[in-house]
């Protein structure tokens, strides 16, 4: 890190887009600079409202995000966006990250948009997405939007990263709903049927409302909206429902619970990363590791016994392995 942590925090807090972009790259690459910077930024984060936009591919999530940015900028909000794309198998970067995304906002100093690759991670978000959301929060953006990769019912990570989850569906959504209802349908706070100018939208809205009624969810009842991002219709209603949900979270105490779950999830991610790092270092120092695997494979040793010995040998506090042997 060519400058002190304090100087980087100052630059990021002032909205320096180059500093923000560099910091996000460190976070994505898990560079040594990232941990110290994030530790310094998290105490000043917490002011942004976080929105997750998820749903199947092709329903117009990016178009909805674009329209929402326009609306929010008109209201005077600063907006940060993390758009998670599939990972290129060749470069490891976002497969669609080089496309011109939301080009109208490229020169707006009140908007920061970053594409990220999943890097093979399931769940709709990249491993570092939550850290990047924290970074944009600390940078002073009022609203931070996480747009997931769009792979269907496995996109459940978003619920642990944001305050309000929006599920977007297309007008011919009957089959989509049947596919999604076992997973992601349960985490949506707001449903939006985009491309409402096309046939089938009204039927999809009715179907989702019927499913919401069947769910008998206590507290917040997810609204079902129709929108057309291409025509700019329904975005104001969407923002109104987001504000209603924000009020509900504050008044019911659910917002505090979600923030605590978000922190717990971040702690768990760090624990897993620390354990994984310690194990890899431990394994690299064990010339007899292949022999141990052979013994387990041949039934001469129990898998649980090996795991117990490994856990006993690892020094998690330092993230390094002690000198234990199998």
From TrEMBL:
Keywords: Hydrolase. The keyword Hydrolase applies. The keyword Hydrolase applies. It comes from the Bacteria. Its EC number is 3.6.-.-. This is Enzyme. It comes from Kyrpidia spormannii.
């Amino acid at each position: 890190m060519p400058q002190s942590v304090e100087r980087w925090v100052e630059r990021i807090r002032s909205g320096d887009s180059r500093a923000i972009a560099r910091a996000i790259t460190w976070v994505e690459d898990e560079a040594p600079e990232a941990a110290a910077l994030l530790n310094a930024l998290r105490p000043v984060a917490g002011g942004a409202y976080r929105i997750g936009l998820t749903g199947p591919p092709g329903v117009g999530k990016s178009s909805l995000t674009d329209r929402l940015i326009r609306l929010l900028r008109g209201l005077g909000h600063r907006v940060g966006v993390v758009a998670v794309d599939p990972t290129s198998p060749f470069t490891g970067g976002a497969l669609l990250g080089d496309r011109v995304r939301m080009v109208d906002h490229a020169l707006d100093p009140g908007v920061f948009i970053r594409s990220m690759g999943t890097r093979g991670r399931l769940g709709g978000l990249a491993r570092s997405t939550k850290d990047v959301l924290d970074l944009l929060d600390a940078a002073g953006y009022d609203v931070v939007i996480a747009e997931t990769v769009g792979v269907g019912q496995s996109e459940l990570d978003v619920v642990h990263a944001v305050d309000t989850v929006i599920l977007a569906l297309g007008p011919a959504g009957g089959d989509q709903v049947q596919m999604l209802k076992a997973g992601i349908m349960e985490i949506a706070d707001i449903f939006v049927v985009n491309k409402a100018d096309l046939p089938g939208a009204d039927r999809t809205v009715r179907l989702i409302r019927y499913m919401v009624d069947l769910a008998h969810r206590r507290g917040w009842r997810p609204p079902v909206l129709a929108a057309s991002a291409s025509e700019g219709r329904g975005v104001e209603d969407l923002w109104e429902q987001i504000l209603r949900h924000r009020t509900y979270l504050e008044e019911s105490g659910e917002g505090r619970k979600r923030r605590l779950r978000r922190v717990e999830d971040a702690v768990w991610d760090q624990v897993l990363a620390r354990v994984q790092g310690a194990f890899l270092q431990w394994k690299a120092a064990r010339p007899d590791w292949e022999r141990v695997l052979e013994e387990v494979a041949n039934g001469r040793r129990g898998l649980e016994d090996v795991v117990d010995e490994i856990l006993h040998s690892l020094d998690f506090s330092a993230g390094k392995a002690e000198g234990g042997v199998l």
